[in-house]
Write a structure and sequence with these properties.
- This protein starts with 8 loop residues before the first strand and ends with a helix.
- The chain has helices spanning about 15-30, 40-50, 55-65, 75-85, 130-140, 155-160, 175-185, 200-210, 240-250, 250-265, 270-280, and strands at about 10, 30-35, 70-75, 90-95, 115-120, 145-150, 170, 190, 215, 230-235.
- By secondary structure, the protein is of the alpha/beta class.
- It is about 40% helix and about 15% strand.
- The mean pLDDT is about 90.
Length: about 280
Amino acid sequence: CFTQNFTHIHSATPGPVGLVGLVVAKLLNRPFFTTYDTALTQYASRITGDRSLDGLLWTYMRWFYNQAGRVFVPSDACRDELISNGIRPERITLMRNGVDTDRFTPRDWRTQRNEFTLLYVGSISREADLDVLGDAVRRLGRSDVRLVVAGEGPHRDELRRTLAGLRVEFPGSLEGADLVRAYQEADLLVLPSAVQSSDSPAALEAQACAVPVVVIDRGRREATAVPGESGIVVSGNSASALACGIESILDRASLMKLGLRARELVEQRSLEHAFFDQWQFCQQP
């Protein structure tokens, strides 16, 4: 950082690497920026099963984020969460994520299909709550529904066994044209995690492909889906609630209406818009 004469230090995480970034910024007397977009305390609780870590983590994060000149958040919900845990409001700046709307283009809803494809894109880990999604698909009990789980992770083999008997595919981690094609062949993106990062890239990419999304309401979802417009928000993370939510829109007319509206909304979240927002911020004195 010294030899390259970097003028600002931005840490994307309050973890060990982010802490190093803060130390470097202090040593070189450079402005320090950081980002908050992941429910770290919820992840820690889910992984360890120990809720007592929440207070300890927030004590550290409160200190870390209050060291920053700016804390960038992708949603109002993230901002509110930080403020409620003691981070100074004047340090927080809303900076929404963008999506490549030229690469992720709308699917053709005029094409008639004989089945409905539910898609999940992301890490296949326990905190992704894919077991809940599998149970929800079972509760649907529909032969015209198939599930595609795209991604890799430590829970994949166990999930295969758990979802045995369902119409489910595991194409692995998808990139480039294969990822775009997966969205365009889907009817609905389902993100069942109760602790997933706010403003999920997968949700933005799906909506850019005119595919509506179903997400779980844990107070951090307003930037991911607009209820009744770009998808639906399900209260709680039970399989029955998720199944009811999916069933409520599982017809061509509803999915097409939501999908086309999702594309309209996400066009205001293009990379060009995101870059312009960042550029405007950088021009401030």
